[in-house]
Amino acid sequence: MRGFKLWLTGLLVVASWGLTWHRTAPAQSPAARETYAELPGARIWYKDTGGDGVPVVFLHAATGSNRNWEYQIPAFVGAGFRFIAYDRRGWGRSVIDPAGKQPGTGADDLQSLMDHLRMDRFHLVGTAAGAFVALDYALSYPERLRSLVIANSVGGVQDEDFLELGRRIRPSPQFEGLPPDVRELGPSYRAANPEGTRRWIELEHLSRPQGAQAPAQTMRHRLTFSLLETINVPTLLLTGDADLFAPPPVLKLFADRIQGAESLIVPEAGHSTYWEKPDIFNRAVLDFVRKH
After folding, report:
1. Across the strands, what pairs with 218?
2. Is the bond preceding residue 249 a cis peptide, omega within 30 degrees?
3. What are the φ/ψ torsions at residue 45 (nearest 5 degrees)?
4. How far is CA 276 from CA 63, 106, 197, 248, in A?
5. How would you label 107-127 residue by residue, b for 16+ Cβ within 10 Å and e otherwise?
């Protein structure tokens, strides 16, 4: 009988160990994946490097797709962050679903993707037209953001005097007649990096399969400088000193309106700082997000 009691006691101890282990087993880290997310009105193609790092989400320009971040992936993953980028609705490999609500808003597409990935809070980086979405998202869902980076962008601001400034900087139709690489890559980069320029052009072509046009998505907000004054998210602004869309005086307009914004002007860079000066871009963004 005594032997039986000892055996039973041992069995209960082993069982309790198993229950304790089961209760305290760590949650599995998110797996790396590159696939579609079925969202309202669109199948959104995204890349997620997975892992336990703090997420950083990247929004591409109107001339790009998630492929354009090839210089950022190793830098951010190597620094321990979880890298996420996607093809915005109508770009790259994302597919519009005509049966769904169209055209939707970029901010709501981002919110739906973050919900799909069960993402709580994250850093958001937008370049050029991708920064329009980033600003709209910061105004719509500020509780989801750890920080905001706005790169090389006019921000989608609709104040008439600002629009008139843009018309003086980029006169029509002459400006639109320039090739995309001339508009968006600075002369220093094009002169010194013919192979990088060729690769950028290749990615620009891939961003619009078979010449498809992306939908003209509306914004949740009509963006104005007075509205930008209400942003309460840590913000970094950066641009290139040779940016034909958002030259340094434009960056200063945003820096004067967004509370506490930090700013950086990158020398010898055009409208694609992330591509032309990736080392400077990556270091500046990494230093910033680490603080928040």
Report:
1. 105
2. no
3. -85, 130
4. 15, 26, 9, 17
5. bbbbbbbbeebebeebbbbbb
CA distance linking residue 74 with residue 51, whole number of Å: 14
β-pairing verdict for 122-127 and 55-59: parallel
The matching CATH number, chosen from 2.70.70.10, 3.40.50.1820, 3.30.470.20, 3.40.50.300, for 30-290 is 3.40.50.1820
- For the chain, the C-alpha Rg in angstroms (whole number) is 23
DSSP letter at 229 equals T
DSSP letter for each residue of 151-213: ES--TT---HHHHHHHHHHS-TTTTTTS-HHHHHS-HHHHHH-HHHHHHHHHHHHHTSGGGPP
pTM, two decimal places: 0.89
pLDDT at 51 over 90: yes
pLDDT at 230 over 60: yes
Domain locations in the chain as residue ranges: 30-290
Pairwise CA distance, residues 182 & 244, whole Å: 10
Alpha-carbon gap, residue 265 to 244, rounded angstroms: 13
Residue 228 CB contacts under 8 Å (≥ 6 apart), including other chains: 135, 155, 157, 254, 257, 258
Helix (H, G, I), strand (E, B) or coil at 47: strand
Residue 210 has pLDDT above 70, yes or no: no
Q: What is the pLDDT of residue 101?
A: 83
Round to whole Å and give the CA distance between 182 and 178.
6
